[in-house]
Task: inverse folding
């Protein structure tokens, strides 16, 4: 293995750790209803895009932040965790494909759902990874017959 | 403006043209039900991800190609066009956020729908841009009262 390839691999491994970290911070910010953390996670850019499950796209940092403020103000509690993460690092860009497990309580109403998400990150000139695209869409509920036989 | 910045800008402009071109090829391949073109557009990678509107994710080039083959075999005709494209170039990665206008005929049944898509591309060592993530999700139908007053 060439020295250059080794450096590339080491940089990718470090980048992957950092992307996993900011990805976890994004979901922790949701679960903590913490708007300041949410603001830290996103890249402040007019090209930032956020698609909440089943909704139209929000474009631009200001509009996206406003929507998280509205969600956090309405939700009594919220727990969102990411699983089945598939991460790709491409120099100063990276993306994570994952499955979100969502529980939200609005007043008396509790919602449980699953969503597929594509999250794209950029590395800033200061070396910080920030979210620039979050696209989530509902995963259809599985019919009973689609579950593996072992569950029956 | 520095010479380096000028070169960066020129490279980005060329990259944007190339990404727009392969993006258009992706939608043209759908509308032509052309599996060979579809195969050319995608990056042959195990990390490729495709989410059709309202469906679960397909992971890996082989599985994705199989699904397009199934769609093309079932559809009598199909027209999908992309609009409202927002493009970001990040060196050898790029992504396009867009709205898809979809018309598909299966036998006697015709479906018209709109979807929001996030499409991520990578530039190969040979300098070709290839699709690595396609995530589409249905856009909710607008209620009559949500349309601008001018339409009434």
Result:
């Amino acid at each position: 293995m060439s020295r250059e390839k080794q450096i590339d691999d080491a940089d990718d491994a470090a980048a992957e750790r950092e992307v996993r970290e900011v990805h976890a911070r994004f979901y922790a910010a949701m679960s903590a209803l913490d708007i300041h953390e949410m603001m830290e996670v996103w890249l402040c850019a007019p090209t930032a895009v956020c698609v909440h499950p089943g909704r139209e796209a929000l474009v631009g940092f200001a509009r996206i932040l406003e929507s998280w403020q509205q969600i956090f103000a309405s939700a009594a509690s919220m727990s969102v965790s990411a699983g089945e993460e598939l991460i790709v690092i491409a120099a100063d860009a990276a993306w994570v494909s994952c499955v979100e497990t969502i529980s939200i309580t609005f007043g008396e109403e509790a919602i449980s759902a699953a969503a597929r998400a594509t999250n794209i990150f950029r590395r800033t000139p200061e070396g910080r990874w920030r979210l620039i695209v979050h696209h989530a869409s509902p995963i259809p509920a599985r019919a009973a017959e689609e579950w593996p036989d072992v569950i029956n």
